Amino acid sequence: DTGVSQDPRHKITKRGQNVTFRCDPISEHNRLYWYRQTLGQGPEFLTYFQNEAQLEKSRLLSDRFSAERPKGSFSTLEIQRTEQGDSAMYLCASEAAMNTEAFFGQGTRLTVV
Amino acid sequence: AQSVSQHNHHVILSEAASLELGCNYSYGGTVNLFWYVQYPGQHLQLLLKYFSGDPLVKGIKGFEAEFIKSKFSFNLRKPSVQWSDTAEYFCAVDAGNNRKLIWGLGTSLAVNP
Questions:
Q1: Measured between beta carbons, which residues in chain B are less than 8 angstroms from residue A91?
Q2: Nearest CA of chain A to the CA of B80: how many Å?
Q3: What 3-state class would DSSP assign to A40?
């Protein structure tokens, strides 16, 4: 158990619907990352937070994607108007500080049908 | 653009065989280097990391990796693999110390008992 929790573990949704994923990082980890992983690929960076501030967003994160970390603890990732190409594993990781280890959750597998 | 290349996508070994997985990255400046492992059905876990100092890094479960700056490489090794090492192995690079990991495509290792 890494301590990073993601909910739900699996989500099947119809194309066009909105979905929201939640990540609870390890307590007191101030850095939180979202990655996306598709079959046969390594994880791709989406965005990261230091406390409640979103410091960087990938170009992969289109305007249909939004992430928040309102109180600097848990984070949500919302995808609006889902498309089949959004089907992937969405990974969350947290880190206490720079030059330390990033701990990953088990991910949320999204399937858009 | 920064990139990470893992040379072997699928490796099949017998128990007690030696393992070497190649990883090369493209970035001319300071890098932090990581190997992560993902066992079937589990989350990504850190095997080992290199930030500075001795370029030969020892990790968990008997794994080690050597950073060769001149070759932009960080190859993973284990002298004698076990069936329990069957997993997906990912090399990742944090270029410029910005903590945004760039990942290789992964190597799927199957160890036959």
A1: 44
A2: 26
A3: coil
Rg (CA), chain B: 13
The enclosing H or E element of B20 equals strand B19-21
For the stretch B9-37, pLDDT in tens is 999 999 999 999 999 999 878 888 999 99
Bridge partners (DSSP) of residue B88 are: B38, B108
Q: Considering CB atoms only, which of B49, B97, B104 is closest to A42?
A: B104
As a whole number, the mean pLDDT across chain B is: 92
pLDDT at site A8: 97
Three-class DSSP category at A85:
helix
For B51, nearest residue in chain A (alpha carbons): A99
Name the residue facing A104 among B43, B98, B100 (closest C-beta): B43
Q: How far is it, in rounded angstroms, from Cα B93 to Cα B32?
A: 6
- Nearest by Cα to A101 from B70, B59, B3, B73: B59
- Tell which wins on pLDDT, A58 or A25: A25
C-alpha–C-alpha distance, residues A55 and A50, integer Å: 7
A5 touches chain B (CB under 8 A): no
Range list of β-strands (E), chain A: 5-7, 10-13, 19-24, 31-37, 44-50, 53-57, 65-68, 75-79, 88-95, 103-104, 108-112
Q: Hey, is B95 helix, strand or coil? A: strand
